[in-house]
Amino acid sequence: MDAVASRRRWSRLLVAGVVIALLVLPQVGGRFWQYLTLNILLLSLFSLSFNLLFGMTGLLSFGQAAFYATGAYATALLLRTEVIPLLPSVILGTVVAALLAAFIGFFCVRHTHVYFAMLTLAFGMMVYAIMWKWTPVTGGDDGLIGIPRGSLSIPGLFTIRMDPLAHYYYFLTVLALLGIYALYRISRSPFGLVLNGMRENAGRVEFAGIPTRRYLWWAFTIAGFFAGLAGSLMAPLESTVAPASAHWAKSAEPVMASLIGGPFTFAGPIVGSLIYIGLKEVIVRFTQYWLLIFGTGLLVLVLGFRGGVVGFLLQRFARRDSPAGPAEK
Amino acid sequence: MAPLLHAHGVKKAFGKFLAVDGVDVTLPPGGITAVIGPNGAGKTTLINLLTGRLVPDAGRIFFHEREITTLGPSERVRRGMGRSFQLVNIFPRLSVHENVVIPVLAHCRLAGQMFRPLVGLADVHAKADAILDQVGLLARARHLAGQLSHGDQRLLEIALALSTDPHLLILDEPTAGMNPRERVQVLEQIGRLAAEREVTFLLVEHDMDVVFSLAQRIVVMHQGRILTEGTPEAIQGDPKVREVYLGEAILGKAEARTPAVGGPVGDVILEVRQMNTYYGLSHVLHDVSLSVCRGEVVAILGRNGVGKTTTLRSIMGLTPPKAGTIRLRGREVAGRPAYDIARLGVAYVPDDTRIFPDLTTLENLQLPMQVLGRGNGRWNVEKVEAIFSPLRDLKQRKGRFLSGGEKKMLAIGRALMTDPELLLLDEASEGLGPLLVRLLLGALERMRKEGVTILLADQNVKFAREVADRAYILEKGAIAYAGAMADLWRDEAVVKKYLAV
What's the pLDDT band for B98 if we cut at 50, 70, 90? Predict the structure, then answer.
């Protein structure tokens, strides 16, 4: 039990360190580092939402970008009215994505395994087609451009313009961290354990007295909510949204980030996102064939680190801590 | 008194095969009712209909006087029904504790809580631990469920069924694969719960000692229908029941058989020396040495979790040993992959049979021939059907629709089709009714005559005593005893110490 307690203390210190680093970064790092960090945060949140279905529940979704893009488009449309402030726009955009997830999930959770994956892919492509072709609303091919960031204000008290990146940096970071924390709480809750149970043996969960389909539907909707939050936060950052954000290639990003970092640990997708974006950023500088190098790097990571980077490291530590005992989670 | 459960005219067909053909069951509250019947009689299908895993084609089912015919399993469990499964059905990559926490959460209506930390629910954890304590698994609460021995997984299966506090508990072969001590423990638990009128039991069981000592009422099924029902005394004396199920004598009453030939029969076919096997970091087998001669039947005995299955898997190359030698007809095979060892004439029948569910019986049998390209071995479909006659009528049935006993026969038959010289059998007699056990004994005798050497691991000591020439007893992953079966049986101290009979 000592090993567990010490590991818990170390991970608390690590989390505190990361949060402090995130908060002081704008004071020391320029726009490039802020922008890179925000991208990592967005992909982390997006990947964690995907991993709620994949690592925790055992469902492989290839359509997670549909909710990411829906959040982004909805928030963009609301902000472009120039009437609705930033925070309500982001919240409403996220809710719209969650509602879409509830609708699509209603059909998807009727199937598992490869059929589930194919259904999510099909729905994802439908959403992509809508974004691409519904020009009057979505701007079609061009997407939506010139999205204002608006401001954060409590009327009569204060108003903070979000145009400077450093200001928006704090807004995005705080909301993304809140989202990640909410997902963490879910993963450590009774509901989270039930999702793990469904990954292991859905039939037995049903015989525990739990209506599995309804729980899967909830999981799907929650995953859509947090993917939508990531998208909603992305739109004002980039100030444009393109249909590519709904494409299945976008859906593949959280799949890879989760596999790199380790789908069976909570921190896995976060570490995976860091590696994914970091690798991409470095390789792009050297060669235009960056996808080739990047793919090779991914192969090494996935084949070399069983259970992802985090899973692999945890196993190594477990081995050192308790040479004979079974691995603790 | 209003019945707790009432099923009326329930029917279920799989394709053309009528698995359950118009069954009426009425269970008054309290007491233990046992369902017996030959393998394939429709017992498990009936349980699946009662618990909502299957929806009947016709008929109605009432529980607590309310109709539940088309309700899903989770709703039935919420209304107070619980069940265990014939095959192990747990959450393998969760800890034993977490396995039990899931149904406890569901029962406490806490399973949907998303933001409350699970660690803070002290009542839930205490209740889960109490249930694990009842079945004797508390010491292993932190282990991964998938790493438990087969017998311990069976105990966990019972714990899962108990943890929703059911009024009606339906148990499908609850003691299959348990050693005698665990069996007694579980049966005492069932008896106590029934006596305290907390729980009404419906159980399917093949161990007639269990059935006749525990049940107040027995329902006999045959070919999808109820053949008869009544008190244990009435059933025991019923000639129809004897004909279809019990056979003439109950297994285990006979004296230990004397092997046809004493001592080693032929040259040594399998020689294992100082074999050490690990699962991950845990050292499971310690310097296991054993040998098997051509034409022999050798049994590996011992309690649950002592390494019987691991020994077979190590020989087969499925869990290669880290140290030691395995010689097959003098050839070193340790560390070789399983398919190589299969090609050298070894076949392995795992305890969970691994039948291909979407292939028919015939296709399951023909597959090894096609894969190995061996057309003219000693065994063919007709010969397998000759020793496992029930398979003859099941040629076109898909694996998933076979009963537990039928799968067992098919798995052994499929192994024979690879024309093995050495057959490794894991828990061959588990879940078989008395008539089928007799059939299996005959089949093993026939195989031996055809020149198949057999190494089996079995929890069922009575069965092993009937069939084996020699025995090894494993204790904590090491050989604790080796000798002729007849000598072993005379050595009461050894039997008591290692087999807990």
Answer: very high
Residue B191 lies inside a defined structural domain of this protein: yes
Hey, which residues 249-308 in chain B have their CB within 8 Å of chain A?
Answer: 281-282
ipTM of the complex: 0.88
Contact status of B83 with chain A (Cβ, < 8 Å): yes
Task: For residue B277, give its domain range.
Answer: 268-499
Domain ranges of chain A: 29-246
Among B214, B246, B278, the domain boundary falls at B246
Q: Tell if the CB–CB gap between A189 and B94 is shorter than 8 Å.
A: no
Across residues B341-357, what is the average pLDDT?
90
Residue B344 has pLDDT above 80, yes or no: yes
**Residue B31 domain-assigned?**
yes
Tokens of B428: 């061959």
Whether residues B240 and B272 share a domain: the answer is: no
Domain count, chain B: 2
Residue B115 contacts A where some CB pair is shorter than 8 Å: yes
In the prediction, which pLDDT does B251 show? 41
A208: closest chain B residue by CA: B103
Give the distance from residue A198's alpha carbon to the nearest chain B alpha carbon, in angstroms: 9
Residues of B within 8 A of A192 (CB-CB) are 114, 118
User: How far does the CA of residue A23 sit from the closest CA of chain B (Å)?
Assistant: 26
Taking Cα atoms as reference points, which of B59, B25, B77, B461 lies closest to residue B203? B25
Burial B22-45 (b: 16+ CB within 10 A, else e): ebebebeebbbbbbbbbbbbbbbb
B185 in any annotated domain: yes
Q: How far is A111 from chain B (nearest CA, A)?
A: 16
Task: Give dist(CA B206, CA B463) in Å, integer.
Answer: 13
**For A47-96, what is each residue's pLDDT tens digit?**
999 999 999 999 999 999 999 999 999 999 999 998 888 999 999 999 99
CA distance B160 to chain A (A): 8
Residue A327 CA to residue A319 CA, distance in Å, equals: 8
Computed over its alpha carbons, how large is the radius of gyration of chain B?
23
Q: Does A193 touch chain B (CB under 8 A)?
A: yes
Could you report the per-residue pLDDT of B208-245, keeping only the tens digit for each? 777 888 899 999 998 899 999 999 888 888 888 877 77
Please check whether residues B368 and B436 belong to one and the same domain: yes
Quick check: B102 and A197 CB within 8 A? Answer: yes
Asked if A190 and B112 come within 8 Å (Cβ–Cβ), the reply is yes
Together in a domain, B311 and B176: no
Structure-block tokens of residue A283: 């390789």
Under an 8 A CB cutoff, do A188 and B107 touch?
A: no
Amino acid at B250: I
- Asked if B454 and B327 sit in the same domain, the reply is yes
- Tell me how close the Cα of A285 comes to any Cα of chain B, in angstroms: 42
Please give the model's pTM, rounded to 2 decimal places: 0.80
B197 C-beta neighbours (distance < 10 Å), count: 10
Do residue B60 and residue B173 come from a single domain?
A: yes
Q: Are strands B81-84 and B168-172 parallel, antiparallel or unpaired?
A: parallel
For chain A, residues with pLDDT lower than 50 are: 321-329
Alpha-carbon distance of A233 to A76, in angstroms, equals 10
B213 shares a domain with B274: no
Q: What CATH number did the domain enclosing B426 receive?
A: 3.40.50.300
Tokens matching residue B24: 């009426």
A218 touches B at CB < 8 Å: yes
